[in-house]
Design a protein that fits this description.
By secondary structure, the protein is an alpha/beta fold. It has two domains: about 30 residues; about 325 residues, no CATH class. About 20% of the residues lie in helices and about 30% in strands. The chain is globular. The N terminus is likely disordered.
């Protein structure tokens, strides 16, 4: 009887603990401080069908084909942006940034140019995404002074590039700069956007993703300097996109061969998508899964390398101080996470910041 009572007591205690844990989890869900709507911070990918009958454009994105064999002996092919690391060649991808000014029907304005030399756009241009002065040393291994995405990709294929020092994937124009195109101003109809307070009571525009994507797709057709050879990046500030609810911090997509991306620059430290964290996420995923001519496939799904870490501490962001400003750059998983051989990546790590995964596909894709 004593043993039975003890077991019954333990069972009751465990049941109570589970109930309390679930209750705490539900209570801990993020909610808009004004509307009380549930907030789900996330990034998305918006792949679009490619018409096989469309002619190949005169210029296309520089890409290379690779593959890896998983532990079951299955081969997985992939397409990535840049040059094959084994060729010891560099790639410089033309890059355009388009500031998107959001004006809500209720009069609130969210402008990435506001603030002059300290504006979201200015901070973006001088960030480690484009600046090459940061020296990335991971676990004692020096990956070089370079841009953040290039450092990640070098770590991703360290078994190859450690002997190929000229292998780089860089963003910029002919002189390693980037081009800022004219502002896109969106007067958002009431049915497509509203004011929200999704994180820590801070005001943010919430704009329908489909509406937004239609507007930026039109913009690309109206500016002939944007070609499939490069990457147009649309930047909003303090703006989240909505798709069945808030909050999408960024996405990447394609219109045929033209790949492109959006990110929001949140100027409240600690909030989801703070400074260029969303940009690092989206550019990293674009580099590993540009969507054209097809989507990559692995045991975990497509190569959305940022998603498995976006729900970790600080939304997966790690601080880097540059030009007297602390940027937050998101950690991203290496190919090992998708069941490539461990020795492919630097130090056989699972991710750029050595997140302690214990198995493939642990946090999905």
């Amino acid at each position: 009887m004593k043993t039975r009572s003890t077991r019954l007591g333990l069972l009751m205690a465990l049941t109570l603990l589970i109930c309390c844990t679930l209750s705490v989890f539900v209570m801990a869900q993020q909610r808009d401080s004004v509307t009380n709507e549930i907030v789900k911070p996330r990034f998305v990918v918006v792949p679009k069908a490619i018409d096989p009958n469309m002619p190949t454009p005169e210029v296309t994105l520089q890409e290379w084909n690779g593959s890896f064999m998983d532990h079951n002996g299955n081969n997985h092919n992939f397409v990535m942006v840049g040059a094959d690391p084994s060729t010891n060649q560099g790639a410089l991808i033309p890059t355009w940034i388009i500031p998107v000014k959001i004006i809500l029907s209720t009069g609130e304005v969210f402008d990435p140019l506001a603030g002059g030399p300290f504006s979201p756009l200015a901070r973006t241009i001088t960030s480690p995404i484009f600046d090459r002065s940061t020296d990335y040393t991971q676990g004692g291994v020096d990956l070089g002074h370079t841009q953040y995405i290039d450092a990640f990709q070098r770590g991703n294929f360290w078994s190859i590039v450690q002997n190929n020092p000229n292998s780089h994937l860089l963003l910029g124009g002919p002189s390693a700069g980037i081009t800022i195109l004219p502002v896109l101003t969106l007067n958002v109809p009431a049915g497509n956007g509203h004011l929200g307070h999704p994180f820590n009571g801070h005001a943010a525009a919430e704009v329908d993703l489909n509406y937004f994507d239609t507007q930026i797709s039109t913009y690309m057709t109206q500016h002939s300097q944007i070609t499939p050879a490069g990457l147009p990046i649309f930047e909003t500030t303090d703006t989240y996109l909505t798709e069945g609810g808030c909050c999408v911090g960024g996405y990447h997509s394609n219109n045929g061969a033209q790949t492109y991306s959006h990110f929001t620059y949140i100027d409240h430290p600690g909030d989801f998508a703070q400074d260029v964290s969303a940009l690092s996420h989206e550019v990293g995923e674009w580099a590993d899964d540009p969507l054209y001519p097809s989507r990559n496939s692995t045991p975990c799904g497509i190569l959305e390398i940022g998603d498995p870490l976006e729900a970790t501490a600080n939304y997966g962001g790690y601080p880097y101080v540059l030009h007297n400003f602390t940027y937050n750059l998101q950690d991203m998983v290496f190919l090992r996470y998708f069941d490539a051989p461990a020795g492919t990546s630097v130090n056989s790590w699972w991710s750029f910041q050595n997140y302690p995964f214990t198995r493939i596909c642990q946090n999905g894709s």
